[in-house]
Design brief:
The protein is an alpha/beta fold and 390 residues long. The protein folds into two domains: 91 residues, Urease, subunit C, domain 1, CATH 2.30.40.10; 263 residues, Alpha-Beta Barrel (TIM Barrel). Helix content is 20%, strand content 28%. The strands form two sheets. Strands 1, 2, 3, 4, 5, 13, 14 and 15 form an eight-stranded mixed β-sheet that branches. Strands 6-7-8-9-10-11-12 form a seven-stranded parallel β-sheet. The C terminus is likely disordered.
């Protein structure tokens, strides 16, 4: 009757407002049925007693152009093997490099991959040369041509604005406006990396952003953050939230500061989506994986169901993929079975400041298209961080 049946787990599916013990069945790559005590007529049955079953996790910000970009890592050992069935590469490839990224990464990976196309035609290749050091690399025409040829996997246009290392003073904020031009022409949103841009404040950047645009790295501790000089959420940030700009975590190696996030949460500001910004410079710490990033928000006091929503249903809605991020009948058969471990766990921000949490999320079984993922590096076995506080 089914290809796979998961029994007795606590299902948390925010898209359907479900938090209850349920059985979930999969057939032909899709969710076939969800209910109480489904018949055990399946090719494979998994007993999920004592565990939590969620839709497959979605990470809106990774860098997986392995072997080409200095940031690139292999997607499968770091995404699907860690509970992330769908990931979005955040601008590692540009128009000149995207064909190779599609052929050699997207099309051969078990992880379902989408991409934000870098407005720089070269993408993120080397630390010795910023991708927008020369404004000629920000080609609207090339970006549009690449988007039209890859509409099925390109979700938007990415721009990084950090002065010096990425953008020259002569280029200023011009790359942001070119990204906006390309995205508008294609009918897509933009994703912005804002810190230390060539402007006075994040207000000038937010003024260019509209509904469904993504402001990533929202808790960085550099210039152009969401707090004003008095430590209050900027009025422009609240205005952007009201008009539908998505504020995304994008933890990364330098973009998550405990003091910023704690101050913001105390004022009622929460990110819409939790993403890792996982790449070669942080995969061995402090990020490790999306589960570790999500666990930090449990420590910060967000309810478990809200944390799960921010890695499932909300990012699915942000990228307009209604068949992802949910276990509704007919959706893609993606699911993450996880444990909530209790103890003392060391969590670090991008500046190596430590907080000690009492819970952490540990994916133990991953389902993609209705099939158990059998990668040898699954979940906790490939995690290099000690489970206990160090």
């Amino acid at each position: 009757m089914y290809d796979l049946l998961i029994q007795n787990s606590t299902v948390i599916d925010p898209a359907q407002k479900i938090h209850a013990r349920k059985d979930v069945a999969f057939a032909h790559g899709r969710v076939a049925e969800i209910g109480d005590h489904l018949p055990s007529q399946a090719r494979e049955v998994i007993d999920g007693s004592g565990e939590i079953l969620t839709p497959g996790w979605i990470d809106l910000h990774v860098h997986v152009f392995d072997g080409v970009s200095y940031l690139g890592i292999a997607p499968d050992p770091n995404c699907i093997a860690k509970g992330v069935t769908t990931a979005v590469d955040a601008g590692t490839a540009g128009a000149d490099t995207f064909p190779g990224f599609r052929k050699y990464v997207i099309e051969v990976s078990d992880t379902r991959l989408y991409a934000q196309l870098n407005i720089s035609s070269q993408g993120m290749l080397s630390t010795s040369m910023g991708e927008l050091e020369d404004i000629r690399w920000a080609s609207v025409a090339k970006a549009l041509q690449t988007i039209e040829a890859n509409r099925d996997v390109i979700l938007g246009v990415k721009v990084r604005l950090t002065r010096g290392a990425i953008v020259s003073e002569a280029s200023g904020l011009r790359p942001l406006h070119l990204a906006r031009e390309a995205a508008d022409a294609a009918g897509l949103p933009i994703m912005v990396h804002p810190q230390d841009a060539w402007t006075d404040s994040i207000d000038d950047i937010l003024a260019v952003m509209a509904k469904r645009d993504i402001m990533t790295h929202c808790f960085h501790g550099s210039n152009h953050g969401i707090l004003d000089e008095q430590g209050h959420i900027r009025a422009a940030v609240w205005d952007a939230v009201a008009r539908g700009v998505i504020f995304d975590v994008g933890h990364g190696a330098g973009s998550f500061n405990w003091d910023i996030v704690e101050t913001a949460l105390a004022q009622g500001f929460t990110p819409q989506t939790i993403s890792s910004d996982l790449h070669a410079l942080n995969v061995n710490g402090p990020v490790y994986d999306l589960a570790t990033t999500a666990s930090k928000f449990l420590h910060l006091g967000l309810p478990l169901d809200d944390v799960i929503a921010k890695v499932t249903s909300i990012p699915a809605a942000a990228i307009l993929k209604e068949d992802l991020g949910t276990l509704k009948v007919g959706a893609w058969g993606d699911a993450t079975l996880l444990d909530v471990e209790h103890g003392a766990f060391a969590f670090f921000d991008s500046h190596r400041q430590q907080r000690t949490g009492t819970q952490r999320l540990v994916p133990v079984t991953v389902i993609k298209n209705g099939t158990r993922y059998s990668g040898k590096d699954i979940a906790v076995h490939s995690h290099t961080q000690s489970r206990k506080s160090q």
